[in-house]
Amino acid sequence: MRNALSFVILIALLFGPNAGMLSAAQALDPSSASGTPAPTSVSEGDLDALMGQLSTLKQQVSLASNYSQLEAPQDLVQALIREIDRLTALVMPEQAQLQAQLGVLGPTPLADAGLEKSEIAAQRIALTEQKIRVDARLKTLATLKTSAAELLIQIAAIRRSLLETEVTQQTRSVLNPWFWAPLFNPPADDRQKFRAFIQEIGATLAAAWRPGERLLTSLLLAVAVAFWIFGRRVAERGLTWLCIHRMPEGRLRRSALALASVIATILSAWIALQLLFFTVTRELPLTPQLMGFSQDFEKIVYTCVMITGLSRALLSTEHPSWRLPAFADPLALVLKPYPLRLAGALLVLVSLAQMTNATGMSTQMVISVRGFVALVISALIATLLVRVSKTRRAMVMAGTAPEGGRTLAGVIYAVASIAIVVSFLALMIGYVSLSRFITYELVWFFIIFAGFYLLIQLLRDGCEFLFSPRYSTGKAIKQLLGIGDTRLEQISIILSGAGRAALLLIALITLLVGGVGSTLSQLATNILAILGGDGLRKLNIVPANLLQALLALIIGVYLIRSLRRWLDNEFLPKTEMDPGMCASLSTLFSNIGYALVLLLMLSSLGVKWTNLAWIVSALSVGIGFGLQEIVKNFVSGIILLTERPVKVGDLISISGVEGDIRRINVRATEIQLADRSIVIVPNSQLISQNLRNVTLGGSAQGVATLELMFPLDIDPEQVRSLLYNTYVEHEAILEKPAPVVRFSQLKPEGITLTVTGYVSSPRMVLAIKSELLFEILKQLSTAGIELAKPPAA
Q1: Which residues cross the membrane (predicted)?
Q2: What pLDDT shows up at residue 425?
Q3: C-alpha span between 84 and 50 (Å, rounded)
Q4: Can you say whether the dihedral through the CA atoms of 359, 365, 367, 372 is positive or negative?
Q5: CA dihedral 22, 28, 32, 34 (to 10 degrees)
Q6: How far is the C-alpha of 686 from the C-alpha of 703, rounded, in Å?
Q7: Strand, helix or coil at 744?
Q8: Which residue, 78, 101, 467, 505, has most beta carbons within 10 Å?
Q9: End-to-end Cα distance, the chain
Q10: Segment among 203-212, 449-458, 585-594, 731-740 with least mean pLDDT
Q11: By three-state DSSP, how is residue 750 classified?
Q12: CA neighbor of 481 nearest in space, from 469, 470, 494, 493
């Protein structure tokens, strides 16, 4: 069977590297350097066997007459490609070893050829001949792989063509009695093929039940049945106990319990099926016809197991609190028997259909069986939809809300209803293959939807648990990265969203490339073929490099944050640089670090810059039109951080905005005003416009100037002395330069006097002017001097 073959290949892969290591060890051992070449790991018989298998598969593909007959050859070609890859991996170390040994011996000397020892010459000749044989076998393996890959492409094209032909082919309607005639009165040729098939089955069973083997056969059958019936319960109880006692209470435990139920069902079915296959085939190998049927039967068994396992896990009628979807209990109880009925019908009917394909029965018989399968499956699904509709209607009338996610549930219900109606119509007008295709796709959609729904819920709950500050994992991540709860929650949301997007993409691909009876290995091969297609190969991105790039990003960001904290808190405060310079250096370091991390991440992805010419061209156009301001501000930010015409902490004035520079970012600069508000000024304005930097020199003084208007009848000398003395007596006013009182204006409204004094810092001006004004008004009131009143409007 397919899984047995996969297991054998896995064992061979595990032991393959050991063989290569042994060869390398022998190469390093001087005692092994003899003239007798060691035998290669791949013989001519292995190559002949591969060629024979490929020729047989090509013959089977050429004789296929319907879509289903190409499923088994497609799987066998994929297995053949994996076997070729395994043998190639075994031969490659031998080629490298021989090349290294020939490199040690060196080329044949020309001048002193007669002086060379005969043992060395013989050894060189033997190694050269062996390397030629190894190179030829590698070339043969490469040719076989290319031919197998081309055959795989041809099979896909033929299957697509046959599917289109079968779906659009019109036959008799199921309402026509002659449609069912082949089932009730099969043709003589079909009867003969059926009897031959039954005889092959009887011979296989007779070999396993012959005297002397009956006891062992009975025991193996009993063990297989026990695993099938009781194995699931035991495994499910064990996994349930493990989830309850080892998983934290909450949504993650609920998701893990659902996954445990599915794993227990699949595992018990797999063991039972392997035991059953071993019991039947241990004495007499299966004929090619039975082997093809057994492979198809194994696929449909796993399909039925997935249906029952996923339904049991998601409905969870025995433990409603474990239920993942928000199904109401009445609806879950109504749905409970239908997955088992559907699985049983699929197991019997699809096995019957596969038997007609395996034995090569007539087209009339195949079409009749397909119509019967499509009719029964469509009727089951239609009955399910009707019961669900009645139950939901009764729940609405009773005042109980239906299941959550009503929009999605309604869409699924509507699509399924339309598909079933189309299926019945196709059966009535004679498009039997179309009806069967629709029913199969509905079943496949259920498996994909239920399986990936479970995985998405598990991913979301796992991220929520992993990054929760309430648990040890979240606390450890907080301590490691030095982040807060809010940032931890953001990381959880981002990872959960990215993971769900990836799962949805894989689900969509799986829905398109798979179908009922698809195996996990076949799905994995198809998904990797799409995800690793030409679009990603042109950028040289492979899945392994994605992990390296992610690690490079995480480690790089962590190192930059750690080094910046060390610079800000430990190194830069110990230097003689001013705080503005320290902040500028810290910002410049982080920006350069993030740029290097980005380059390292792209390098880890294996991105070739020559393949990014279209990106550079697009960016050039974008910069020329829409991104020029961003680029200009970016370049201006770099200039500000390097030339430092302004720095953090400077008091500047530009375009009517005056305040302290709080932060210089790559694109803009933050200026804090006197009222503590922040003004964002693009960096390009700081470079291109006139800017007043009050504190650039480090010794700038503030100027406290007041303008006061007095009536014309005042004593100017008295007022001058009062203003001057008030400035001189204030402790914040500097002695040098000394305060000055000037006669500014003479108008009919009054006399304007301006008094000016200097303070040690521009940041003190506003406060000092306020204090001086209070004091001057107090002195004027004491002296009986009033300020001029403004003229009436």
Answers
A1: 215-235, 256-280, 338-355, 367-386, 407-431, 437-456, 501-521, 541-560, 581-603, 609-627
A2: 93
A3: 8
A4: negative
A5: 130
A6: 24
A7: strand
A8: 467
A9: 105
A10: 585-594
A11: strand
A12: 469
Distance of alpha carbon 2 from alpha carbon 522, whole angstroms: 11
Measured distance CA(75)–CA(520) in Å, rounded:
11
Mean pLDDT of 346-360: 86
Task: With a cut of 60, say whether residue 93 has pLDDT above it.
Answer: yes
**Given pLDDT bands bounded at 50, 70 and 90, which one contains residue 376?**
very high
Tokens 């433990």 -> residue = 319
Sequence-ordered alpha helix ranges (H) in 112-250:
118-168, 181-184, 188-208, 214-226, 232-246
Q: Look up the CATH number of domain 702-783.
A: 3.30.70.100
Query: Lowest-confidence range among 2-11, 297-306, 381-390, 441-450?
Result: 2-11
> Does 608 have pLDDT greater than 70?
no
Distance (Å, whole) CA 687 – CA 682:
9
Burial grade of 376 (CB within 10 A; 0-12, 13-18, 19 or more):
middle
Cβ–Cβ under 8 Å, residues 285 and 252: no
List the beta bridge partners of residue 654: 657
Sign of CA dihedral 432, 433, 437, 438: negative
Angle at 741 between CA 739 and CA 743, to 5 degrees: 160
Amino acid at 213: E
Among the listed residues 410, 438, 442, the one whose alpha carbon sits nearest the alpha carbon of residue 424 = 438
| pLDDT above 90: percentage of residues in the chain | 5
CB atoms within 10 A of CB 350: 26
The whole-chain average pLDDT of the chain stands at 79
Q: How many other CB atoms are there within 10 angstroms of residue 709's CB atom? A: 16
- Domain regions of the chain by residue span: 2-168, 180-466, 544-693, 702-783
Model pLDDT for residues 401-415, shown as the tens digit of each residue? 554 446 677 788 888
**Cα–Cα distance for residue pair 518/12, rounded to 1 Å:** 25
What does the pLDDT look like over 195-211, one tens digit per residue? Answer: 888 888 888 888 888 88
Over residues 130-147, the pLDDT tens digits come to 888 888 888 888 888 888
At 488, which helix (H) or strand (E)? helix 485-513
Beta carbons within 8 Å of 190's beta carbon, 6+ residues apart:
182, 361, 362, 365
Helix, strand, coil proportions of the chain in percent (round to 5)? Answer: 75, 5, 20
Q: Which of 237, 238, 301, 309 is nearest to 272 (CA)?
A: 301
pLDDT digits (tens, 9 = 90+) for 639-690: 777 777 887 778 888 877 888 888 887 678 888 887 778 888 888 888 888 8
296: pLDDT strictly greater than 70: yes
Residue type, 225: V
CA dihedral over 8, 13, 17, 23, signed as positive or negative: positive
516: helix, coil or strand?
coil
d(CA 295, CA 78): 14
